[in-house]
Amino acid sequence: MGALSNLRVLDLTQVLAGPYCTMLLADMGADVVKIERPGGDMIRSNPPFVDDPEEEAYGGYFQSVNRGKKSIELNLGDDEDREDFLSLVEEADIVVENYRAGTMEKYDLGYETLTEYNEDLIYSSIRGFGDPRTGETDRQGQPSFDLIAQALGGVMETTGQPDGPPTKTGPGVGDLFTATLNCIGILAAVNHREQTGEGQYVDTGMYDSMISFTERAIYQQSYTGEAPSRRGNSHPTLFPYDAFETADGYAVIAAFNNNHWAELCNAMERDDLAESYATTPERLANRETLHEEIGEWAGELTNDELVDILEGRVPAAKVQTTEEIFDDPHIHTRDMLVPVEQPGAGDDVEIAGTPIKMTETPPEPRGRAPLLDEHRDEVLGEEPETTADD
After folding, report:
1. Nearest-CA neighbor of 41 among 9, 8, 63?
2. How far apart are CA 388 and CA 292, in angstroms?
3. Alpha-carbon gap, residue 139 to 152, rounded angstroms
4. 117 within 8 A of 90, measured Cβ to Cβ
5. 316 φ/ψ angles, rounded to the nearest 5 degrees
6. Alpha-helix runs per DSSP H in 228-356
7. Torsion of CA 32, 64, 97, 378, to 10 degrees
8. What is the rounded CA–CA span in Å between residue 207 and residue 198?
9. All residues at 6 or more sequence positions from 38 whose CB lies less than 8 Å from its CB, including other chains
């Protein structure tokens, strides 16, 4: 039994932000019914595949964020399918969708309509620019993706090398951070309903979320009147807090305070630097010179040697490849790589586990992602359509 095993979620989302949000709910035990448009979520066919995309039901993208859900295929423009959906709404706790603003209203399935069928429903949307119900702007209705959100929200302007172009982060934080905040909002609404009996609308916009995500840039602009820009791997108010090239890769050193700095200088056998640049303002004013000094020392060491020297004294770590992550015993002990079946392939695959750990109701991926319309009989009492996996 998961912590949310008493909740049923109707998941009308696709691609990444919405499915990641409902995946978190599914990992915590919620009964998540993925209601897919005709043909299914558009990312079912996205790579990578284990072997043969013609044989495999879906790729790694879909598997990763749709594990543990049920699937039914409905056309909300069809009268019979619309009635099936409304019958599910009557018994649901939560509806989540990530269409453009106004899309559900075109089918007369917006929040106000659904609450006529279930007055204490929690209805949640993830949109690029939020929903007019919580603050109307001229951007609503525009399409948005992770790249758009990162560009508008200041992430790209503050990411990358100082002499390089604005750069997006590797992971899609415009989607993933928004999804996580939306999940928090949903759970807050569930708690409010437990106390009052009232459902409500939960709205999380990707642009809004990126403003929250770039909190440092916001307060820097406010306090200094200057627009922060790219600093590479360094920190605007701390030094050394940066990446350094070693003999076999890169390592990061996070000397957060004066004691860390003194320990780092001692490890480098450079107590003169500790004495000359004892305070953070002194180090920041001379960061380029000091970066060269640390860089020369680090360049003579392997990643492992550098980390071993600083262990217990100064926070440091090597910059790991994904291959190294898969070999890290910590990751396996923490159940952060989870094997799941890949329909159409001969071998299981591994996906990222859940970082949320609980002692009594531990969240976990609850099986592979569903085949399209796989659970029609279970959810609606109808036989599913024949699939390629049958």
Report:
1. 63
2. 59
3. 12
4. yes
5. -155, 150
6. 258-267, 271-276, 280-285, 287-298, 303-310, 322-327, 329-333
7. -30
8. 28
9. 73, 75
d(CA 185, CA 94): 12
Give yes or no for a cis peptide into 48 (omega within 30° of 0): yes
DSSP conformational letter for 381: S
Strand blocks (E) in 116-169:
122-127
- Rounded to an integer, the average pLDDT of 363-368 is 94
* 117/95 Cα distance (integer angstroms): 12
Assess whether the previous peptide bond of 240 is cis (omega < 30° from 0).
Answer: yes
Specify the domain boundaries for CATH 3.40.50.10540 within the chain. Answer: 8-213+332-380
With the CA atoms of 355, 361, 365 and 369 taken in that order, what torsion angle do they form, in degrees rounded to the nearest 10?
-140
Active site positions, annotated: 175
The 10s digit of each residue's pLDDT in 33-80 is: 999 999 999 999 999 999 999 999 999 999 999 999 999 999 999 999
pLDDT of residue 152: 96
Dump pLDDT digits (tens) for 226-243: 899 999 999 988 999 999
- Which of 286, 249, 253, 287 minimizes the C-alpha distance to 267? 253
Instruction: Say which residue the tokens 């603003």 belong to.
Output: 101
Q: Count of residues for the chain?
A: 390
Residue 25: count other Cβ atoms within 10 Å of its Cβ.
25
**Range in 16-25, 278-287, 338-347, 381-390 the model is least confident about:** 381-390
118: left (phi over 0), alpha (psi -120 to 50) or beta: beta
CATH class, range 8-213+332-380: alpha beta
For the entire predicted model, the pTM comes to 0.93
* Residue extent(s) of CATH 3.30.1540.10 domains in the chain: 241-320
Fold of 241-320: formyl-coa transferase, domain 3 (3.30.1540)
